């Protein structure tokens, strides 16, 4: 009961912060209306809220270094160098950064920023890519260069290492069930590798089994890149080279797959990020389209959000990771513009938006 009350309190603080960010985080919203999707005259389901990219846009103040060298009007300090993936849960945002070799931990209720894996020791990161958070707040980071997954406590302290070069070729993402008892590591493999698969570990990091092999059949993968676990414990895998999403049971049994290559709505051209929300919707970013598409869990397209364009709200050039928190807020990374867009889900019922 205490944990539940604390969670509710944190989520209320997150709502208040996000409302504040919408008023002060970006200057674009002061000169134009916020984009909504779908566009009028359709009923809006998603609305652009804000953009996070500098210390000032998130914390409300410049870094101490900027203040020392410039005082009033000093340049803001960018948070990210090259953001790759994002996770969101319980008022915490995680953003992996492959250039700074760290995971930025943004605490929404306090507007504070910490960095994980930037110092030496067992918890140091070399090239962090996929990130995840379980129901206990533990943090999981796929390190593609070290060929491991690093696990940290909710405060960022190193806990353990999962996997290793003997098991993984190119671990690009990690997903975990709510209890933290199943850890799924996406091994993208490579052009010359047959290790296009998902490795399954228990909550203590012990290897359980491998899901899939290279191929195009049911339960097979070609360059899998991302994964997510729903409330039922089912595993969703973004099978990028086969231009589809595959769904498995918690034990790795194939359930269904959908998607195909193409340039039309509902198709995939360069899929990169995958997320699930509490309403059972599936979100897939596509760097070729400059948007994320929202599907039902059976693969039916509901709508798309965003477009290719300049560095304006709702416009993107190189989309990467995506996350959706418990409140339905969507967090979307663009690697060219080094920004994290926050998009508000304002309507859960998307039944009238079937494309």
What does this structure look like?
The longest helix is centred in the N-terminal third of the chain and has 23 residues. Helix content is 10%, strand content 40%. The protein folds into two domains: 30 residues, no CATH class; 264 residues, 6 Propeller (Neuraminidase). It starts with a helix and ends in a 10-residue tail after the last strand. The radius of gyration is 19 Å and the shape is globular. The strands form seven sheets. It has a five-stranded antiparallel sheet with strand order 1-2-27-26-25. Strands 3-4-5-6 form a four-stranded antiparallel sheet, with no helix packed on it. The protein contains three helices and 27 strands. β8 and β9 form a beta hairpin. About 5% of the residues have low confidence. With 355 residues, the protein is mostly beta strands.
Describe the structure concisely for a colleague.
By secondary structure, the protein is mainly β. The protein has helices at residues 2-24, 55-59, 64-70, and strands at 36-37, 46-52, 83-89, 92-97, 102-107, 112-116, 128-133, 139-143, 148-152, 158-162, 171-176, 182-187, 197-202, 207-211, 224-229, 235-239, 244-248, 254-258, 271-276, 282-286, 291-295, 301-305, 307-308, 315-316, 319-324, 329-334, 339-345. The chain has 2 domains: 49-78, no CATH class; 82-345, TolB, C-terminal domain (Neuraminidase).
């Amino acid at each position: 009961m205490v944990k539940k009350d604390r969670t509710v309190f944190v989520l209320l603080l997150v709502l208040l912060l996000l409302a504040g960010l919408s008023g002060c985080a970006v200057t674009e919203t002061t000169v134009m209306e916020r984009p909504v999707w779908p566009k009028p005259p359709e009923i809006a389901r998603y609305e652009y809220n804000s953009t996070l990219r500098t210390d000032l846009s998130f914390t409300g103040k410049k870094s101490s270094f900027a203040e020392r060298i410039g005082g009033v009007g000093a340049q803001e300090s960018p948070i990210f160098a090259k953001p790759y993936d994002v996770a969101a849960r319980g008022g915490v945002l995680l953003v992996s950064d492959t250039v700074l070799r760290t995971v930025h931990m943004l605490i929404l209720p306090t507007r504070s920023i910490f960095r994980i894996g930037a110092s030496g020791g067992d918890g140091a990161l070399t090239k962090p890519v996929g990130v995840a958070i379980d129901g206990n707040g533990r943090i999981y980071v796929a390190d593609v260069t070290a060929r491991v997954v690093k696990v940290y406590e909710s405060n960022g302290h190193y806990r353990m290492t999962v996997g290793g070069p003997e098991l993984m070729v190119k671990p690009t993402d990690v997903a975990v069930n709510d209890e933290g008892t199943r850890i799924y590591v996406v091994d993208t493999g490579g052009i010359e590798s047959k290790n296009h698969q998902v490795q399954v570990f228990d909550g203590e990091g012990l290897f359980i089994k491998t899901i899939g092999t290279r191929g195009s059949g049911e339960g097979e993968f070609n360059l899998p890149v991302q994964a997510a676990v729903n409330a039922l414990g089912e595993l969703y895998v973004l099978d990028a080279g086969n231009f589809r999403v595959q769904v498995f049971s918690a034990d790795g049994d194939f359930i269904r797959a959908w998607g195909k290559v193409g340039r039309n709505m509902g198709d995939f051209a360069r899929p990169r990020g995958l997320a699930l929300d509490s309403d059972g919707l599936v979100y897939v970013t596509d760097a070729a389209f400059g948007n994320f598409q929202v599907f039902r869990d059976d693969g039916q397209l509901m709508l798309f959000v965003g477009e290719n364009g300049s560095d304006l709200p709702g416009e993107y050039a190189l989309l990467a990771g995506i996350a959706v928190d418990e409140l339905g807020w969507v967090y979307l990374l663009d690697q060219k513009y080094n920004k994290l867009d926050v998009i508000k889900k304002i309507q859960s019922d998307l039944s009238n938006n079937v494309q």
